[in-house]
Amino acid sequence: MMTTPTPLPGLLSIQPRIFGDDRGYFFEAFNQNDFAAEGITEPFVQDNESMSKRGVLRGLHFQVPPNAQGKLVSVTAGAVYDVALDLRKNSPTYGRWYGEIIDAKKKNMLWIPAGFAHGFLTLEDDTIFRYKCTQVYSPVHERCLDFSDPTLDIAWEKAWYSYPGLAGTPFFPLVSSKDKAGSDWLTFDSPF
After folding, report:
1. Which residues of 39-78 are buried (b: 16+ CB within 10 A; e: fewer)?
2. What is the pLDDT of residue 93?
3. Alpha-carbon gap, residue 28 to 18, rounded angstroms
4. What is the overall mean pLDDT for the chain?
5. Hey, which residues are catalytic here?
6. Which of 80, 99, 115, 169 has an alpha carbon 20 to 30 Å from 9's alpha carbon atom?
7. Side-chain-side CA neighbours of residue 23 (13 Å)
8. How far apart, in Å, do the first and last CA atoms of the chain sit?
């Protein structure tokens, strides 16, 4: 696999080696030794999967300590614009976000360590999103930030219009009531 650092320390873009021929393809989605060599040593304790139609926006989610989660995210069908927001107060990139298209064709992944909020926008119908977590889901530790906070200025709409086939398609993301009620950035006091 090829691991590329992003502008946010600790957040990694991962491209596995894909072996393909006229029969199909094969790749290792996870190999503990390879990930440990890249510094990802936390044990994964829960795998999650969601399916969404095009235009669904989920996030920005995170869990607070002591149940903060690292996530290894990928897409098995379709494509997403995936975003991670640095919540680590002592980080030089605190309050900055990084976004990347993750899709089933490239099989690329993002490693999002604890201390980041995470969200994604589906760019194709029937997108299947998978993520491995380093902590189990804990509703009492779950938090949500406003995905549309103007202070953060996340490029959801730009990603939408730049994706092949979506130019000219209205951008009206489908968002849960929980995510619509996310906290604003200016009053947020990070626990990280």
Report:
1. ebebebeeeeeeebebbbbbbbbbbbeebbbbbbbbbeeb
2. 98
3. 8
4. 97
5. 61, 131
6. 80
7. 3
8. 30
Burial of 171 (0-12, 13-18, 19+ CB in 10 A): middle
pLDDT per position as a tens digit, 42-69: 999 999 999 999 999 999 999 999 999 9
Token pair 């903060």 is found at 68
Domain range annotation of the chain:
43-180
| Residue-by-residue DSSP string for 128-174 | EEEEEESS---GGGEEEB-TT-TTT---HHHHHHHSTTTTTS----B
List, in order, residues 6 or more apart from 154 with CB less than 8 Å away.
Answer: 83, 85, 97, 99, 119, 147, 148
Residue 74: strand pairing partners: 130
Query: Side by side, which strands form the sheet with 2-5?
Result: 2-5, 12-15, 109-112, 71-77, 127-133, 46-52
Q: Does domain 43-180 have CATH number 3.20.20.100?
A: no
Please, which residues bridge with residue 142 across strands? 63
Give dist(CA 44, CA 46) in Å, integer. 6
User: What gap in Å lies between CA 181 and CA 8, rounded to an integer?
Assistant: 26
Report field, pTM of the whole predicted structure over 0.90: yes
> For the segment 5-15, what is each residue's pLDDT rounded down to a tens digit?
999 999 999 99
* Token digits of residue 128: 């299947």
Tokens describing residue 142: 């779950």
State percent of the chain over pLDDT 70: 100
pLDDT for residue 98? 98
